[in-house]
User: Fold these one by one.
Assistant:
Number 1:
Amino acid sequence: MSSGNGSEPRPTDEELSAMSREELLRLGGKLDGVEIVNYPDPWPVKGTKAEKRAERAVALWFLIAALAGAAFFAALIWWPWQFEPPGNQDGYFWYSLYTPVLGVTLGVSVLALAIGVLLYSKRFIPAELAVQQRTDNMGEGSAEVDRKTFVAHLADAGERSTIGRRSLIKRSAGLGAGVLGLGTVALPLAGFIENPWKDANGKDSLAHTGWQPAFPGEVVYLRRHTGDFGEVSLVRPEDLDAGAMETVYPFRESERDDHDALVHALKRSDNPVMLIRLRPDDAAKVVKRKGQEDFNYGDYYAYTKICSHVGCPTSLYEQQTNRILCPCHQSQFDALQYAKPVFGPATRALAQLPITVHSDGYLIARHDFIEPIGPGFWERKS
Ligand code: FES
């Protein structure tokens, strides 16, 4: 607020302190060259049925915001969010609704809160019409008189909005905003609610992938995806030409007749592995990583497909240079040097899966990766 054109006599500090808010309001207007054209009270007669109806309408929107916020919070925690294959009709139906339910409940909550606020300002805040001449106050800061009159304006606006005596609206707005706030705090934390150390050696823990045997001695085969989710096509060493690459997934005999498990193995995000058969000349140049000297089977090397930068699929293998390329940010990994990064933003090698050939002639994983795949997380050691 400016101190106006200076033609108005300035009150002393004592006079200012003795003024009522109403007087300060008028004084502020005069000093600023403000002319209030219209300042109607939206409810000149207090306590009418119409006023109460308007109050209840506003409270209703805040209540809807609170209910939708609570529904969002409940869905975030309790809705079945884990993947269910389409074969499991009931489970898949509820799983597929998870994201839409979160979107709808959060959207309704925000929308209802916004409508409540808009409705309140439309029905209860006086629509003041004032005209003011602007001035830059000659570059000087606000004087005491400006500060006092400005505060008086704010206080007057607060009082005229009648929010102070509308406890129904205050409570419902607090409830709506509070529940919505709770949901927005819970959203980023929800991923951490599951205990990541529970069953730390199981294939479903954060520390392992689907390549982890479910029990000691379980054989986990390398399986290709033929396009038919239920088909089991295992990989023999002679299936790949020198210089070829194939994407493989884990398969265990216990899942042969379990359609859901077969689908899940192909869809689980940390399962895909690039099986690369190096050309003999290239294989002779391989530099193995310490501790992983026996992870390959002859010319066959298996690396996770999940990029160590931010987790895109590194699906491109360039036979001439033996480079594995990630299309997301152009990281390149050297397949002859335990897939260590040689270009781009990735800083860690792709995790290598130890493989061998089973007595039945099919390629199998000797055990799970010895380090977490993909971007680093808190337990990564390399
Ligand atoms: S995710 Fe692979 S380079 Fe960024």
Number 2:
Amino acid sequence: MAKVNLSIVALGVMLLFFADTWAQNPRKRLAPPKSPKGQCCDDVRSLKVQVANLTSILEELSRKQETDLLKVVRQIMELDQQNRQQEARVTEAESKYSEINNRVEIMQLQTLQSATQTSSDALYDCASLYSKNYKISGEYKLPKDEFLGTPELSVFCDMDTNGGGWTVIQRRKIGLTSFKRDWKQYKGGFGSIRGDFWLGNDHIFRLTRQPSVLRIELEDWVGETRYAEYGFFTVSNELNSYKLFLANYSGNAGDSLRYHNNTNFSTFNKDNDKCVDHCAALRKGGYWYNCCTDSNLNGVFYRYGEHTKNTDGITWYGWHGPNYSLKKVEMKVRPVGFQP
Ligand SMILES: *[C@@H]1O[C@H](CO)[C@@H](O)[C@H](O)[C@H]1NC(C)=O
Ligand SMILES: *[C@@H]1O[C@H](CO)[C@@H](O)[C@H](O)[C@H]1NC(C)=O
Ligand SMILES: *[C@@H]1O[C@H](CO)[C@@H](O)[C@H](O)[C@H]1NC(C)=O
Ligand SMILES: *[C@@H]1O[C@H](CO)[C@@H](O)[C@H](O)[C@H]1NC(C)=O
Ligand SMILES: *[C@@H]1O[C@H](CO)[C@@H](O)[C@H](O)[C@H]1NC(C)=O
């Protein structure tokens, strides 16, 4: 529409030019013919008026387009905001529901425990809870155990995936919890057990003293999911810098933790990686950085729209490469040979 008008204006300007030169030149060189002169100037005047009119129409159009564009942008921003508010409401409702659910569960658990607890059948992970018939996914409180030397610990149990019995050790899904934390925080754990969290290297060490399977579940921004499973997974103690051992990959996400095998854990204030770069600072997380990554599950959470612009995001190179930050991640463990 605007383009058509623009060419009409151009045509108008050209006509004006020709009309003008045609009108002026004869005056200088030849004797001006009487009648055409009056007619010509009338033509020029009317052309000028038309050009002015077209120009004003054009201006109005571009003004209208600008306000339309602004309106669309504003609408998109409003939709985005509504979306976020809804998401927050759902999360809140979800956590309230599971809180009530869990209170009941924990009460049952405590009753059961005071009746049956001995050191040999102490509950120390989600797999042992599952075998005691706790088959609902959610938060459980593992009791303190003097004999095993374990403190009381809140855990999230996935009792549904592939037979259940999984103790979740890491989750990214909401994106409000920073994972750029120091050694001490990675040691003890941080975040919210129903939201984003790291269970803590000491706890992961304790859980994986029994031969364990690691399962990693990933989701991208169009809702597609992939997983990677390691048939053997263990983490050393703090004295050995929480060094990672892995074996026997299976899955459809790619083997992007293999590169981190036999590597110490690093945080921004404890650089244990295998190169001159300071990987934990560069990738903004705590992880078993080699030199530096083939995955970075504790990287920066980037929202939809900005999730392909940075190399320090939540990455899994085997699936989406180095510049795609995933929307959701869960890491979970259970004993090798677990039978649902
Ligand atoms: C300008 O154009 C519009 C429609 O093309 C017309 O209605 C209006 O009368 C014109 N104005 C002048 C001053 O020519
Ligand atoms: C890997 O799997 C093979 C075959 O099931 C098994 O023999 C081996 O012990 C496993 N390795 C580890 C470290 O668990
Ligand atoms: C890993 O940590 C151990 C002990 O904490 C240390 O002896 C070893 O040199 C470290 N390895 C690397 C590559 O930093
Ligand atoms: C990790 O390293 C160990 C040797 O320390 C090896 O046995 C194991 O197969 C490696 N895991 C993977 C996934 O390559
Ligand atoms: C990732 O982003 C960096 C810059 O941020 C760019 O140099 C690199 O080419 C990108 N890689 C891919 C595979 O898109």
Number 3:
Amino acid sequence: MPEIVTQGTDHPLTTVKLQTGEKVALCRCFASKNFPFCDGSHKDHPGKGPAVVEAVASAGSDD
Ligand code: FES
């Protein structure tokens, strides 16, 4: 389960921390009711869609 940390109020910065192997779809249309995650609401906004992010182990990592 990703850890979500939001800092600030005027221009909030949201950090989504993933474990190796986790994959999430992040909203880029700002219509999601489950922000920062995509909930499919982008279907009403042609040309918009999520960013899919997957955490993978890199060479030399302990994961
Ligand atoms: S709901 Fe915003 S990209 Fe899917």
Number 4:
Amino acid sequence: MDEKRALVSRILNFSCVDGPGNRLVIFLQGCNFNCKNCHNPHTINHCNHCGDCVSGCPTQALSIDAHDKVVWDESLCTHCDHCIDVCPHKSSPKIFSYSVTDLIELIKQQRYFISGITVSGGEATLQLPFIIQLFERVKSDPELSHLTCFIDSNGYLPQTGWQRVEPWLDGVMVDLKAWQQETHQWLVGRSNHKVIASITYLASIGKLHELRLLHIPGKSDLDSQLNDLVRLINTLPEDLVVRLNAFQHHGVVGEALQWEKCSELEMTRFHQLLAGKISQPIKLPTVYT
Ligand code: SF4
Ligand code: SF4
């Protein structure tokens, strides 16, 4: 079997907000949404090696090789993020390529301190063959098989994709960013039919761990479309976690910087609309920046 590799933007050795318990999180590069509110827009596209970021690097950590590819020398990089700021392509030259074996070794180093791993993004499921091989290796390794394997997803993967990873999958966190097609299309560039189908399918096989609802005052529509939203949530399992996400400006670029941030007061209003209409536990943001 060919060993798969993944393009990785970042690895967090410990996180307590990316699934249950303490988790090692692998953020994969590339996304099939183009959210106006994205907090990490440099993770959306793969670098096209245009070279625009190279000359501005203050430490000469970027260069162009003999094949016209931009090469990043991590040892020279000070992580000033100038290259990310100037990239016209919503990308980054600071991307790692990891094989499944590389990551298994890393997970083994952390195995006593974590309850599982989460693959996130970008949109992790764009690199599904890699995820399947990684999860399979975790579950079949006696030193790692106690770890849970989660995916943080925008929900755009079709059911056939979920079925391929299902044997090794413990749970999924799915974002729902808007209810009406026009709003969802405007906000992320794609419709939400597949997202809602994923939510329903994952719930039916017991793999939907968390449903994340985005609230952008006056822009997203989950508060104004509450009855339809509640109807969906009431079909989902009782032990599902419903997490409310408050739009903030951190990392955001473009027109969304002009949008009103979601205050704690506004989030409390949304929470009050929802609480009492659904039986699942609701988690609120802890930080508003
Ligand atoms: S983040 Fe690193 S590679 Fe990018 S401009 Fe700064 S020093 Fe150069
Ligand atoms: S990171 Fe962006 S600016 Fe730099 S080479 Fe890649 S696409 Fe061009």
